[in-house]
């Protein structure tokens, strides 16, 4: 099981971002995704900065992937996308079909991101045929459906390698994208004059129901879950589901602790049932795992202690 | 094609009476779906079985109007054949086009029924010409419905760089999020538009009159509470009232409907092929009211773009049937963002 | 263009006061029986062809707010059946005029809901199912199957309202 660090979904100061990746170079990660996937107005790091980071992380032994923007609206968005692809030094994660077109045209292999909506084996096979070497299922896709997807996928005639499956396994879930910026709206600002208020909310801005229940988190034009998707306690279910890579989504504090716990799970130093207690104090909010089980995403089912349930049959 | 389509009026049909009402009131085409999760308005009791579909196609095509069938959810591995069968049904019954979101399904349609006209659904989330042209090159789509997130200037940029016809939403329920990329519903209740074909499905919704007002809950989560004099909206999460940093407000969007009528002259100038009216979940009464108004407006703008003026009576009629009795230009108008 | 309005006479206040004070009787209230009788006569002939099997036995309540009337009933293979006052699975609340406008297809239920003139409480899915199934019945077809005179009256009323 490989561990990846997903693209940073929030907007942090330049110093904080650079410091974060400097640290990440030392963490026990196999893959690091870099790039701005949420908002084109966020500019504290630009492509040359990401490429420089990519070189450093690559030198530190990480596989680096550059993630493309999810919502492409303008010609300048497309220009940025083309630059990202033409650089060619690093693999790209395509997060919409325009990027897939450009990557396939350039005959480059790529990672098929979660918002490409590959919900069936036909679409997945098409992505693989166009050059995808790894795919991230939509974050709402249940375990059983992932199994069905992989079972139905025919081996590719011209490909020696099987397409890898990367699961969103930890972090606030990216649930929706809009043209509207909800953070700017919160501050009664127009998006074009947002004063970069996202900088004040390094883990997003929590939205609670009128009964005080933490429900969603707003992150610029993105809406996330308030709860943190965590599948640490289900780590032993991944192999049977065909998961090759587990994606950990960056958070502002204690990310290295989170990575270490998942690494300990991967090498068998701790058991899945022990993980929640260890993770708990490093998480910005309560966990959820409903999507994995085919339920409402916000649901959570803790796994019992190994004494009663966790032993192999 | 001799005459490229211009501002065709495409109206919603959730039932046979709605279809006939749309046709009788001047729709150029109707769009509809089957009674299952192959389309994104999968609500109990709504939509068409084969018998009503045959009758609907006969009625509309008999009056030279088009029938477009929405198969715009994402097929899933265990039930893939349901979508294939639906495509086959559409082809054999002779609909004028099918509206698809999933590339795998487009591939099937293209290979199995090469003569069948394909439209890219709004659920396909194509917001740039690169994305639109991807579907064009690979599957030969002839029309794309753009998500309700682009400004008109951005729409123009798409049009300038593709030969695919562009259809825009004119009126009705407003998705604040990029369609096809919104999982808010499944996060709260397990069913998403992408896979289940409905946002906030009825089984998860509860309305209750309480001493504090009318409460709307989605799978137990309180998403709004209306005082007695307040207008209401659909029980979707994007139109809910939440608390952010101690302030309770419509954090994502107010209960409101999209109304782009003021932009009709500009849409005519851009050569928008069709205007889509949202609302397959609504009754024939709505279809009649909205179709009449938009027919009159489109006829007026086609007669003279320069002198076109939105009639106050049209706007009043549309506001009356709108969510929260309010209208917005949405993303077509940049400051909305 | 103006949208049609339909002015229907409201019941005298006395009657309204009378009906709201009806206690929870241990037997089927005559109001519900009258409702079921009328519904079976006027509506059932055109509804019976639809597949109602999944709503059989579910308890409905129609609450007419301006005159304080409540009708309790269930639906079976043979039609509407009046029920005792009980906890309904789903309750529809609106004024008599708005129910009439809905029945004549002059108004869209969602519009009434947005304007807080229609409330659906209880099992929302059941409520929407019934609403959607009723929408799928053509008024002309329904009117043709009503008892002599009534169908004409219904269509005439609708035409009148649309002209208004």
Fold blueprint:
The complex is a heterotrimer of chains A (313), B (337) and C (164).
Chain A: E1 2-5, H1 14-24, E2 31-34, H2 47-59, E3 63-67, H3 75-87, E4 91-94, H4 97-105, E5 110-112, H5 121-130, E6 132-135, H6 143-152, E7 164-178, H7 182-186, E8 205-208, E9 214-219, E10 222-230, H8 238-241, E11 245-248, H9 255-267, H10 275-279, E12 287-288, H11 306-310
Parallel strand pairs in A: 1-2, 1-11, 2-3, 3-4, 4-5, 5-6, 6-7, 7-11, 10-12
Antiparallel strand pairs in A: 7-10, 8-9, 9-10
Chain B: E1 8-12, H1 16-24, E2 29-32, H2 50-62, E3 66-71, H3 80-93, E4 97-100, H4 103-112, E5 118-120, H5 129-139, E6 143-145, H6 152-160, E7 165-173, E8 177-182, H7 184-189, E9 205-210, E10 213-218, E11 221-226, E12 242-244, E13 247-249, E14 257-259, H8 264-270, E15 274-277, H9 284-303, H10 312-320, E16 327-328
Parallel strand pairs in B: 1-2, 1-15, 2-3, 3-4, 4-5, 5-6, 6-7, 7-15, 14-16
Antiparallel strand pairs in B: 7-14, 9-10, 10-11, 12-13
Chain C: H1 13-20, H2 30-42, H3 44-47, E1 59-64, E2 69-76, E3 79-82, E4 90-94, H4 96-103, H5 109-114, E5 119-122, H6 124-135, H7 139-144, H8 150-163
Parallel strand pairs in C: 1-4
Antiparallel strand pairs in C: 1-2, 2-3, 4-5
What does this structure look like?
The complex is a heterotrimer of chains A (313), B (337) and C (164). Chain A is an alpha/beta fold. Chain A has one domain: TIM Barrel (Alpha-Beta Barrel). Chain A is built from eleven helices and twelve strands. Chain A has helices at 14-24, 47-59, 75-87, 97-105, 121-130, 143-152, 182-186, 238-241, 255-267, 275-279, 306-310, and strands spanning 2-5, 31-34, 63-67, 91-94, 110-112, 132-135, 164-178, 205-208, 214-219, 222-230, 245-248, 287-288. Chain A starts with a strand and ends with a helix. In chain B, 32% of the residues lie in helices and 22% in strands. Chain B has ten helices and 16 strands. Chain B has helices at 16-24, 50-62, 80-93, 103-112, 129-139, 152-160, 184-189, 264-270, 284-303, 312-320, and strands at 8-12, 29-32, 66-71, 97-100, 118-120, 143-145, 165-173, 177-182, 205-210, 213-218, 221-226, 242-244, 247-249, 257-259, 274-277, 327-328. In chain B, the strands form three sheets. An eight-stranded parallel β-barrel of chain B has the order 1-2-3-4-5-6-7-15, surrounded by six helices. Chain B has a three-stranded antiparallel β-sheet with strand order 9-10-11, with no helix packed on it. In chain B, strand 12 (242-244) and strand 13 form a beta hairpin. Chain B is globular. The mean pLDDT of chain B is 95. Helix content of chain C is 43%, strand content 16%. With 164 residues, chain C is of the alpha+beta class. A five-stranded mixed β-sheet of chain C has the order 3-2-1-4-5. Chain C has helices spanning 13-20, 30-42, 44-47, 96-103, 109-114, 124-135, 139-144, 150-163, and strands at residues 59-64, 69-76, 79-82, 90-94, 119-122. Chain C has one domain (28-163): 2-Layer Sandwich (Nonspecific Lipid-transfer Protein, Chain A), CATH 3.30.1050.10. Chain C is globular, with a radius of gyration of 16 Å. Chains in contact: A-B, B-C. At the A-B interface, helix 3, helix 4, helix 5, helix 6 and strand 7 of A face helix 4, helix 5, strand 8, helix 7 and strand 11 of B. Strand 8 (205-208) of chain A pairs antiparallel with strand 12 of chain B, so a sheet runs across the interface.
């Amino acid at each position: 099981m490989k561990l990846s660090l997903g693209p940073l979904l929030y907007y942090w100061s330049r110093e904080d971002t650079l410091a974060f990746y400097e640290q990440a170079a030392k963490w026990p990660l196999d893959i690091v995704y870099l790039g701005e996937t949420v908002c084109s107005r966020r500019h504290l790091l630009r492509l040359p900065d990401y490429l420089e980071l990519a070189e450093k992380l690559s030198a530190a032994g990480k596989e680096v992937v550059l993630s493309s923007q999810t919502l492409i609206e303008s010609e300048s968005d497309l220009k940025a996308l083309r630059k990202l692809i033409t650089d060619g030094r690093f693999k790209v994660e395509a997060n919409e079909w325009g990027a897939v077109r450009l990557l396939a045209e350039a005959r480059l292999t790529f990672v098929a991101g979660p918002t490409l909506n590959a919900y069936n084996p036909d679409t997945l096979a098409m992505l693989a045929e166009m050059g995808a070497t790894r795919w991230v299922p939509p974050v709402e896709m249940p375990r059983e459906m992932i199994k069905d997807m992989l079972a139905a996928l025919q081996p590719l005639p011209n490909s020696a390698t099987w397409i890898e499956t990367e699961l969103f396994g930890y972090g606030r879930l990216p649930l929706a994208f809009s043209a509207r910026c909800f953070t700017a709206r919160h501050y009664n600002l127009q998006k074009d004059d947002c004063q970069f208020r996202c900088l004040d909310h390094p883990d997003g801005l929590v939205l609670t129901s009128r009964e005080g229940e933490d429900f969603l988190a707003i992150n610029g034009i993105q809406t996330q879950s308030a709860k943190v998707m965590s599948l640490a306690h289900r780590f032993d279910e991944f192999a049977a589901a065909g998961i090759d890579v587990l994606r950990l989504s960056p958070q502002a504090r204690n990310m290295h602790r989170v990575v270490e716990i998942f690494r300990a799970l991967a090498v068998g130093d701790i058991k899945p049932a022990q993980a929640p207690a260890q993770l708990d104090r490093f998480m910005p909010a309560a966990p959820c795992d409903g999507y994995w089980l085919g339920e409402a995403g916000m649901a959570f089912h803790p796994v019992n202690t190994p004494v009663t349930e966790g032993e192999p049959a | 094609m001799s005459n490229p389509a211009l501002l065709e009026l495409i109206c919603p049909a959730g039932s046979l009476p709605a279809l006939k009402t749309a046709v009788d009131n001047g729709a150029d085409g109707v769009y509809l779906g089957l009674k299952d999760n192959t389309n994104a308005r999968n609500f109990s009791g709504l939509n068409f079985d084969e018998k009503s579909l045959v009758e609907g196609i006969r009625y509309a095509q008999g009056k030279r109007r088009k029938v477009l069938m929405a198969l715009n959810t994402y097929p899933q591995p265990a039930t893939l054949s349901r979508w294939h069968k639906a495509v086959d049904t559409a082809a054999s019954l002779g609909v004028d086009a099918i509206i698809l979101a999933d590339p795998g399904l487009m591939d099937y349609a293209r290979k199995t029924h090469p003569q069948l006209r394909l439209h890219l659904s709004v659920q396909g989330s194509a917001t740039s010409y690169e994305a639109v042209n991807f579907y064009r090159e690979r599957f030969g789509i002839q029309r794309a419905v753009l998500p309700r997130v682009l400004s008109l200037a951005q729409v123009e940029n798409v049009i300038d760089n593709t030969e695919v016809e562009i259809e825009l939403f004119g009126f009705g329920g407003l998705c604040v999020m990029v369609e096809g990329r919104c999982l808010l519903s499944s996060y709260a209740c397990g069913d998403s538009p992408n896979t289940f074909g409905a946002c906030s499905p009825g089984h998860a919704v509860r309305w209750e009159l309480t001493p504090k007002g009318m409460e709307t809950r989605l799978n137990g989560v309180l998403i709004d509470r209306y005082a007695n004099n307040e207008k209401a909206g659909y029980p979707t999460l994007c139109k809910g009232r939440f608390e952010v940093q101690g302030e309770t407000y419509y954090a994502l969007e107010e209960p409101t409907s999209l109304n782009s009528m003021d932009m009709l002259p500009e849409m005519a100038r851009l050569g928008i092929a069709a205007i889509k009216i949202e609302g397959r979940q609504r009754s024939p009464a709505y279809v009649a009211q909205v179709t009449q108004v938009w027919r009159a407006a489109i006829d007026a703008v086609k007669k003279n773009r320069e002198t076109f003026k939105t009639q106050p009576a049209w706007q009043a009629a549309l506001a009356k049937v709108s969510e929260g009795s309010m209208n917005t230009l949405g993303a077509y108008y940049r400051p909305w963002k | 263009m103006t949208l049609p309005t339909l002015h229907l006479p409201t019941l005298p206040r006395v009657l309204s006061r009378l009906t709201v004070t009806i206690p929870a009787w241990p037997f089927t209230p005559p109001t519900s029986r009258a409702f079921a009788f009328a519904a079976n006569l006027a509506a059932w002939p055109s509804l019976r062809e639809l597949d109602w099997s999944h709503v059989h036995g579910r308890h409905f309540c129609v609450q007419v707010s301006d005159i304080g009337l409540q009708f309790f009933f269930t639906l079976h293979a043979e039609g509407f059946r009046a029920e005792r006052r009980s906890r309904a699975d789903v309750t529809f609340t609106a004024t008599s005029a708005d129910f009439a406008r809905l029945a004549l297809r002059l108004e869209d239920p969602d519009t009434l809901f947005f304007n807080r003139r229609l409330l659906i409480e209880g099992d929302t899915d059941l409520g929407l199912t019934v609403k959607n199934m009723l929408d799928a019945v053509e008024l002309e077809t329904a009117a043709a199957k009503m008892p002599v005179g009534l169908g004409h009256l219904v269509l005439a009323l609708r035409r009148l309202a649309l002209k208004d």
